[in-house]
Amino acid sequence: MLVLAFDTATDVATSALLRDEEVLGERTSVPRTLLEDLDGLLRDAHSQAADVDALVVGTGPGSFTSTRIGLAVARGLGLALGVSAAGVSTLDALAAARPGAFPVIDARRRQVFVSGPRVLDPDDLELQPETLCVGSGAVLYRATLERMGARVPPDDDELHVPRARFHAALAGELGPVDAIQPIYVRAPDANPLPA
Fold first, then answer.
1. Which end of the chain is more exposed for a tag (fewer CB within 10 A), N or C?
2. Where are the strands (E) in the chain, listed by range?
3. What value, to the nearest 5°, has the Cα angle with vertex 162 and ends 69 and 54?
4. Quick check: 192 pLDDT over 80?
5. In what order do the strands lie in the sheet with 118-120?
6. How are beta strands 54-58 and 112-114 bridged, if at all?
7. pTM value?
8. Which residues pair with 162 in a beta bridge?
């Protein structure tokens, strides 16, 4: 089975092409270049979009706009190709990189997203000593987390990136792509105009 997996919920977009759980290619860029990355993965593997059997997409939490980019691409591709898909939490994919890793994603507004999923101030985290914190929030709030006794890998460590290969590994049952829902955790900043 040829699976195209991707996540755009954070500032770093990741994508991977897998055949029967073997990673054929992987890319890291920014959300706005996702389609170029997917096309490149397929070309590098001497495949085309019609060869894809399933999609796996990151569902956040993360940036509202970036998460929507990934879901829109998944829906467009899923409907055009007639393939099933699965959604996987960006937090779960981060945690899958290393046993015992605690995912921390920057939620802006001086807050972080953590498993639950929940959004809170970094100072409100309750961590066991030596907890391995990974993700964009761990990098941004390194001093706070280390003061609590946590370990944070170097900023450029790949553990901080929600790799699409982990999304594919965690994918459950495939279903209709339009049934995949984003994980937002908090309401968007925009408010509807009064009637």
1. C
2. 2-7, 13-19, 22-29, 54-58, 84-88, 101-103, 105-106, 112-114, 118-120, 132-134
3. 60
4. no
5. 105-106, 112-114, 118-120
6. unpaired
7. 0.93
8. none
Task: Check residue 175 and give left, alpha or beta (phi > 0: left; psi -120 to 50: alpha).
Answer: beta
Q: Which residues contact 149 (CB under 8 A, 6 or more apart)?
A: 127, 128, 129, 130, 131
Question: Averaged over 9-16, what is the pLDDT?
Answer: 96
Q: Helices H, strands E: what count in the chain? A: 6, 10
- pLDDT tier for residue 189 given thresholds of 50, 70 and 90: low
Burial 76-111 (b: 16+ CB within 10 A, else e): ebbeebebebbbbbbbbbbbbbeeebbbbbbbeeeb
Domain ranges of the chain: 2-91+162-179, 97-158
Q: pLDDT value at position 130?
A: 97
Q: Per CATH, which fold does 2-91+162-179 belong to?
A: Nucleotidyltransferase; domain 5 (3.30.420)
| 67-85 confidence digits (pLDDT tens) | 999 999 999 999 999 999 9
Closest CA to 114 of 136, 142, 98, 88: 136
Which pLDDT score is estimated for 188?
63
